[in-house]
Amino acid sequence: MEAKSTLYIHNLSDGIGMDKLRSNLFLLFSMYGEVIDIRLDGRQLRGQAFIRMSTPDEANLARITLNGEPFFGQPLKIEFSKNEMTV
C-alpha cells in the first residue's frame, strides 16, 4: 500500500469563518511538518478539510498526535484521505 501525505479532517466547527479556520489549521498542522495545501469548501465540505503535508511521515505524525484533540470546542477526527491532493 502506498504511503499517503493527504489527511481528511472532519468534525470541524461550522461557526468559524473560512479564513480563520484555514489559518488555524495551518498553524496547528505546521507544528508537525510542512503544510503544502489546505482545501476547504464551505458549501460542499462543510465541517471538513483536506490537508496535504510534504511527506507521509509528517502526515502520520500529525494524524496520530492530533486525532481527538479539541479544536474550537470539538474533537478533531483525522484519517488519511482516500485520494491524494495534487497541487
Structure notes:
- It is a single chain.
- The protein is α+β, with helices and mostly antiparallel strands and 87 residues long.
- It has one domain (6-80): Alpha-Beta Plaits.
- It is 28% helix and 28% strand.
- It contains two helices and six strands; from the N terminus they run E-H-E-E-H-E-E-E.
- It has helices spanning 18-30, 56-66, and strands at 6-10, 35-39, 48-53, 70-71, 74-75, 77-80.
- A four-stranded antiparallel beta sheet has the order 2-3-1-6, covered by helices on one side. It has a two-stranded antiparallel ribbon with strand order 4-5.
- A hairpin with a 2-residue loop joins strand 4 and strand 5.
- It is globular and about 30 Å long.
- It starts with 5 loop residues before the first strand and ends in a 7-residue tail after the last strand.
- The model has no long low-confidence stretch (mean pLDDT 90).
